[in-house]
Design goal:
Blueprint lengths: L2 H24 L12 E3 L4 E6 L5 E6 L2 E6 L5 E6 L5 E9 L3 E17 L1 H4 L8 H7 L2 E8 L16 E4 L9 H14 L3 E5 L13 H5 L5 H18 L6 H14 L7 H5 L11 E5 L8 H19 L6 E4 L15 H15 L3 E4 L15 H16 L10 E8 L2 E7 L5 E3 L8 E4 L5 E3 L1 E4 L5 E4 L8 E4 L9 E3 L8 E2 L12
Parallel strand pairs: 1-7, 7-10, 7-11, 8-10, 11-12, 12-13
Antiparallel strand pairs: 2-5, 3-4, 3-6, 6-7, 8-9, 14-15, 15-20, 16-22, 17-18, 17-21, 19-20, 21-23
Length: 505
């Protein structure tokens, strides 16, 4: 070929590439939380956002609504859809230089299901999975599963899509999210969408904007550890010929850098891609990875919830969590427990923030397995909170909870709130799981008696003058006290003796 003709071909090819690049940059794009089969939150304004060419006019239409926005210098644009009632299907169309259409869009109730592996745990791995799959024919229940990406820079979008509940795909749904959503859908008779972003093994700090943690003196040790790991990774990565031991260390640090415990990693890598999408609230099952720092969790967990609410810009939306289940071996005698302290930190959060609630599952864990398979009951106990608090349904929702204590000689008399229709000890008539201690702070197994007024009297022949009582204070306590609805008594202690995790930062 003649050189001049070759040059013309090359120039034409380059021009085509540049043109294609410009067209691609001009294309209207939305993050993957917007897609076919999605569910929009009813009865509130919903944010729709995306990218386009700078200065490009973008029109969003849904039903009878048509809204226009202009992309900023960075290409970002957004509109706020006016509230819609439950229903559908609708088509959401977004048009600039190109047009994007999302089909089969429903309007109903949208919840985030988040946390670590017990929230990630699938229907396929849960009790009666075969029967659950057979019955999962519910086109008004949808879920989107986000991938596990750990980053220090915000990820704008992922490739996951909304799924309609069918026998073929329900097995991959979060089991807790599915059973929670199903209960809501069947009770309220409206579409329900669940945004599942759970990541097994994740630490609470990974879900929080790193700048918030860095600005708080309480988390200085954590952030110093983080900085040390980052520096070590950078130093080892720069080595030309690392030793086998250094290679092993580098591999471990690499897991931290892109993993689920580095502060801010999941906030950026997962949450930011859909933070701001219209939701009703969130359900959460996490804490196992933070049990060794349970006292810290007293502040860290409320901080996470508040930071989500602040950035989501939907006010103090409902946030309900699962208290840690019973786990590890049973012990015949009282002992200290980091899991008990983490449960306590979770319970404390209800007094620190509004619109929060705790589903107690101290009765359905498995000592040999950190992942109890009975996720149906977990989802139902969370659904009780939402139905009662957010939808006006008259159902019991709050587990019985310790209120106050008074001394009566060699006994303590305990008073409780939220006892639904009286006590119902399971299996045997006597309440089990109580311990008492005297001034020496040594706890002993106690005998408990339910009094006619619903108070509970506890004592031990080994403690002449008890000053403190505990219930369910163990990794895997033997407990049996429920109210008549079947909600278990929340584990508690009346004392504030220093715990085993008090100094862990």
């Amino acid at each position: 070929m003649h050189p001049s003709r070759m040059r013309n071909w090359v120039l034409a090819g380059l021009a085509f590439i540049v043109l294609a690049s410009n067209v691609a940059q001009a294309d209207v794009k939305l993050p993957n939380v917007f897609g076919d089969h999605m569910v929009l939150q009813r009865n509130q304004k919903n944010k729709v956002w995306g990218m386009a060419a700078a200065g490009e006019a973008v029109t969003v239409t849904l039903d009878k609504q048509s809204l226009t926005a202009t992309a900023g210098a960075d290409g970002a644009w957004h509109v706020m859809l006016e509230p819609l009632p439950a229903g559908g299907p609708h088509v959401l169309a977004v048009k600039g230089k190109n047009e994007v259409k999302f089909e089969d869009v429903l309007v109903g109730e949208v919840w985030v299901c988040s946390g670590q592996s017990n929230m990630q745990w699938s229907v396929n791995a849960s009790t009666n999975a075969d029967l659950e799959r057979l019955a999962a024919k519910n086109p008004n229940l949808r879920m989107i599963n986000f991938p596990q990406v750990g980053k220090q820079e915000p990820v704008w979008t992922h490739d996951r899509k909304w799924m309609v509940c069918t026998p073929e795909n329900v097995g991959g749904f979060s089991a807790v999210g599915y059973f929670f959503g199903r209960q809501l859908q069947e009770t309220l008779d409206v579409p329900v969408g669940m945004i599942n972003n759970a990541w097994g093994g994740s630490a609470c700090e990974a879900w929080i904007n790193r700048d918030i943690l860095a600005a708080d003196e309480k988390y200085k040790p954590m952030m110093e550890r983080t900085a040390a790991n980052e520096a070590a990774f950078a130093a080892l990565s720069a080595k030309q010929d690392p030793t086998p031991e250094e290679k092993k260390q580098l591999q471990g640090l690499g897991g931290f850098m892109g993993g689920n415990s580095r502060p801010g990693n999941i906030y950026n890598g997962v949450l930011k891609s859909h933070l701001g999408y219209g939701i009703k609230g969130a359900i959460w099952y996490q804490g196992e990875s933070n049990a060794g720092r349970a006292y810290q969790y007293r502040d860290l967990f409320p901080l996470m919830i508040k930071s989500w609410r602040d950035e989501w810009a939907q006010g103090d939306f409902p946030f309900y969590w699962v208290q840690l289940a019973d786990f590890r071996g049973e012990k015949a005698e009282p002992a200290e427990s980091d899991w008990a302290e983490l449960r306590e930190a979770q319970t404390m959060t209800m007094t620190k923030l509004p619109n929060t609630g705790e589903a107690v599952i101290i009765d359905i864990g498995e000592g040999k397995d950190i992942h109890p398979q009975n996720k149906l009951e977990v989802g139902k106990r969370l659904a009780r909170w939402a139905l009662a608090k957010d939808y006006g349904v008259q159902v019991a929702y709050h587990s019985p909870q310790y209120k106050s204590m008074e001394a009566a000689g060699d006994k303590l008399v305990l008073t409780f709130d939220f006892i639904n229709n009286g006590w119902r000890p399971f299996d045997v008539p006597e309440p089990r799981g109580f311990t008492v201690a005297g001034e020496d702070k040594v706890f002993h197994n106690a005998t408990a008696k339910i009094l006619p007024d619903g108070k509970i009297e506890v004592s031990s022949p080994k403690v002449a003058k008890p000053v403190a009582a505990r219930y369910g204070w163990a990794d895997n306590p033997v407990v049996n006290l429920f109210d008549a609805t079947g909600l278990p008594l929340t584990p508690f202690r009346t004392d504030d003796f220093p715990g085993v995790t008090i100094n862990n930062k």
